[in-house]
Structures are given as C-alpha cells and as structure tokens.
C-alpha cells in the first residue's frame, strides 16, 4: 500500500509538470541554505543548477546514467561523506540491489518525459521508503560540489546523494558517518562490523572465510581508517599517509582471492589478497606490497594475472595482502544481503526480523545488572539448528539490534546505549513462554554483544550449540524509551521462527495469556483466593461483627449496590488511609463477584469481595516500596506476579493504559480496578470456555462480556 501511495505521488507530479510544461521544484527540500547545512555554512557561495545547464557548459547533453552504472562513476566531492560514496560504490557492482535504490526507467531526455523529478528508495527501520527530489544540484563556478561522476554529463550519483541528504535533513548531515549504516540503508541488509585495531590478530583468523562467504551471498563490504576523531566515526581529513592510504577515510572491498605461491625454498605459501577501492577514484592508492606496480606481482605471469582478474589500473583500486590490510585499516563492515536481494538460493541468508519498543516502567528493564527490572525487557524466542557447511556441530547466527533514528539531522549523542543478551532455554517447557524474573535470577546469559554502544546498530556473530534461545534486547540503563528492530541471520532456515514474547514487538504469542496457578503452585504458595482468606484471618476478621456492619450498610434488601459500596467501603478501610473510589470503580468491584448479574452483592458475595480486597491491598502496599501511594510499571509487574494469575505482557500493558495516570503510575484505586478486571476476565473466560483452551460464543455473549469487564 505504501509503495502504491509513493508511486501515485510520483506519477501525479510527473503528469502535473508535463501538463504545465514546467520543471519540478521540491518544496520539501528547496534550493536554499537550509538544504545545505544546519550549523556550518560552506566557505564559498553555492549556486543551484540543473544537469542540463551544467552539461551544456561542456557542449554535452545531460544523461541520468552514461552506459549503465559502475563503481567508477562515483567520485567524492567536498563533503565528508566518503562513507556514502564507499557504500554506493559497493552497491554499483550489484545491479539488482542498485535497482532497489535507483528505480529503472529514469531519464533526462525531454522526449521521454523528463520534468526534473527523480525517485530513490532507502531502507529505514524495517521498510523501504521512497524519496522524491528535483534535479537542482549544488555547484561552485558551474561544477558539482559534492558527489559527481567522472563523466561531465552523468548525474545519477549526485541525485542519489541529494535524496539521501533530504532523508537526513540536509547535506551537512551526511558529513561523517559509518559505512555500515549506509550499506544497511542501501540494501535492506545488516552490517557486521569488525574493529581490526582492538583485537588480537589470532581472533581475526576466521574473517577471510567470512569474506569469501559474504561475497558468495552478495554481501557488500567496506572498510575504514580512523583519524582519532572518535570511536567508530569516519571523517574526511584528506591526510594522505606515506603508504598511500588516507586517514579518516572509507574504502570499498570488492574481491578476495587466495594464491598458492612458492617461496625461495620451494615451499608453498598461501597468500590472501583483498581488492580495495578509494572513493576518490584517482591515483591515491596503497603503495606497499602487492600494490599496482610492486615486485610481488612478478611471482605471477601476466596471463595468470589476467585470468584471476588481478589487474593493475590507476583508478583508485588496488590489491593488498590480508595481513597488511589488517595492520593499516581500523574497521571492516560486511553488509549481509537479505534473501530478497537475489542470488543463489542455496547461499542466501535466512532472516527473521522483529520490531519492538522499550517503554519506561513497562518494557525498558535495562541491562542484566538491573536485577529487579531486566526481566521486563522484550523477549524473543529462536530455535537454532546445526545446518552450517562446516563440521563443528555449531549453529552460526548473526544478531543485529538497530534503534530508530528520528532525528532531522545527525547527532551521535541522541542514540541510546543499546545491546542484547542471549539465554539458553534448558527445558522444552519454557519454549514460547515469557520468562519470569526468577529465570533471570537463576540463569546467566550464554552470549552477549561485545559492548552496549550508542550507535544506530549493534551486531555480533555467534556460533552456538543447537537449541532454543531467548534474545533480550535492552538499553544500558533502565527506563529509557526507544524503538528497535531486531534481526537474526542464520546460514540455513531456523527450525522455528523467532517469536516475540512481549508486547514490545507489537504482537502476542507464547505461553498462556491468562491462567491461574497450577495445583502444584497452589500447594507451594496458595491461590489468590486462599491467600486472601489467610490475610483476612490475620486481620482478626470477626464474621458476626462483619455481618452486622453489612446489614447496617446494605439497607432493607440486604444487598449492597455500587452506590452503597462507594459510600461505605472507604469508611471500612479507613485504617489504611484515604481511599477515593468513583462510581465506575465500585460498579467494577461489584461485577467481580456478582455472578447472577443482579448488580448487587449478597453478604456471601461481599464477603468474598472483601477477602479479595484485603489480598489486593497487601499486594499493593508490598509493591509500593517507596510509600508514594502509587506504583509504577515495574511494581505492577511485581504485584501481578504474586497475585496468582499469569498475565502475558500485552495484557499488563493494556491494564496500564486503561488505569494509569498521566505520569504512568497507578494509585490504589487504579490498582484495585486493574485487579478487578483481571479476576472478572478470568472468570468470564472460564465460564465461556468450559475448561477448554479457547472459548466459542455468539456476538451477543461476546458483547455482554466486553461490557461486563
């Protein structure tokens, strides 16, 4: 539906411009300074020109693409967005993936419908979004200022950059970034990053194998050299190192080869080479071993070099030995393509994706150190099987957590510190259930991200024993609000799909949505009803005196209606403090035990309600540890877990939405209403289901139940 809406908007603009014989001017991204920068004005005046006017200066006709698309069409301009250029260069080598970002059929030929509007698509937080722009481009003295092609009449790359800048608010927003983020946005894939300068060399021994697998699966690969501008951020400095590499720069990796060579002692040596490209697209290249004209190439004949594609050109593209690459580069990003990207079906990643939300007081429990709230975080079940190509009897999976970026311009500090932990489910009985607090107190996580980081994404590869696992995405601190996308990549289809176990994913699933304690649990801890009676006895309940009080309050009919309950119940509970109950609250309390639907309570029914009220009061005051007179989401979770009723997270969230105040807290009246709703819902379902796991009813019966609760 979204695609249809975007297509309709694009076609409407084209038809309107052609009918009026005008060129499109984008009102959302005007040709003004607001589209150029948010803090730092360019040091020279900018003129906005259309491609036809630019090309005309050189006596040429403007083209959207000149003889197709190539990574050699991309040259970085005066904006520090080498991370974008490097990602686009990787994309240009994969036609099917490129067409997702650059829809085919776009032209600058007036005879074929050119009217100055172009469309591009980017993957943002789990879905593709279309961005429309006009073709007015920033120039200085008639030349493009930012990304441009080597051809003076080709403009597709400059327009992609403009659309991406519009997505983030302005061109300056693209200055400085992570190549992995751009690869994700251009492919819909997930980028796995390796910090080459933080780990021991032996820990990277498996990475060349990952690279071979990545290229087999149509993955895009980039790399970066930092320049002490902050962890993980690549910024353009233009500082060329003695070895020909550029500090603070992003590069593309587009091939990997292994050569079996013979040394002077006639021993076979396995040499791994990677092909690297500088987005500047010029002669600024690596000049060390295996560079274009290094003596190492003499070990291969020219024919062998041609056959292997090991060709030297002054185009910013060069080969490096793997060991030299690791020694000189700081980051390596592999963007693993989603299944829909095409390629050999046997080599595609199997992907499962889920969205969710951290909501303070409800599903924002923080890292495992927050023992009282960590269990409230969203939980996702996944079952892994060993179907990998290797023989280690382990299942490979890549887990990626991404947080939503709602900013108009980039601010690294706006990101939450996010991460995830993985727990193994030791018994099948736990599969599909939301894990309670006790599970996390008794079980340590078996895998986790390396760090909680304030980046857009946190990704890590694991080799785990086959089995059932629960992934818990979380923020470093508890009670922080944020939305997230969780993705799990496996080499083969997992034996069972990932299942969200809390409302943060936007769905239900798993476990009993609402059920009382089992008989065994009753023997161990008691049901809500029996525990309430025990609590009542401890309060020195005197039935004779209680019956006398009821008779005085209920009137001549010896039945208590909601209005009488509203008048007298606060007096009966005066010892606990002031209690204000609305008439709706009292009607709801009457409905808990009004099994004959008379709208009134007999003495026996009120006696039962009283026992429940005493139990609920005990739960409330135990949960209200700070004696504030109200409880938050975590305290509500705690009280409900002791109430004798198992509630799924979605029901708890519904209760909160209905009964909490504007500060997200429940006072005593709200808590009593919430407990009344739980008990009534369970009783009504039991009556309708007749002991089954489901209930079958008419619309009339369903309507009556909805009004009752």
UniProtKB/TrEMBL annotation:
Q: Which GO terms describe its cellular component?
A: cytoplasm
Which catalytic residues are annotated?
82, 249, 278
Instruction: Note the SMART domains from the entry.
Output: calpain_III, CysPc
MF terms (GO), sorted A to Z: calcium ion binding; calcium-dependent cysteine-type endopeptidase activity
Q: Which InterPro entries does the UniProt record give?
A: C2_III (IPR033883), Calpain_cysteine_protease (IPR022684), Calpain_domain_III (IPR022682), Calpain_III (IPR022683), Calpain_III_sf (IPR036213), EF-hand-dom_pair (IPR011992), EF_Hand_1_Ca_BS (IPR018247), EF_hand_dom (IPR002048)
- UniProt region (Disordered), positions on chain: 499-530
Q: Which Pfam families match?
A: Calpain_III (PF01067), Peptidase_C2 (PF00648)
Q: Where is the Calpain catalytic domain?
A: 23-338
Q: Which residues form the EF-hand domain?
A: 611-646
The entry's keywords: Calcium, Hydrolase, Protease, Thiol protease
User: One GO BP annotation here?
Assistant: proteolysis
Source organism superkingdom: Eukaryota
Q: What family is this protein classified in? A: Belongs to the peptidase C2 family.
Identify this protein by name. Answer: Calpain catalytic domain-containing protein
Which species is this record about?
A: Macrostomum lignano
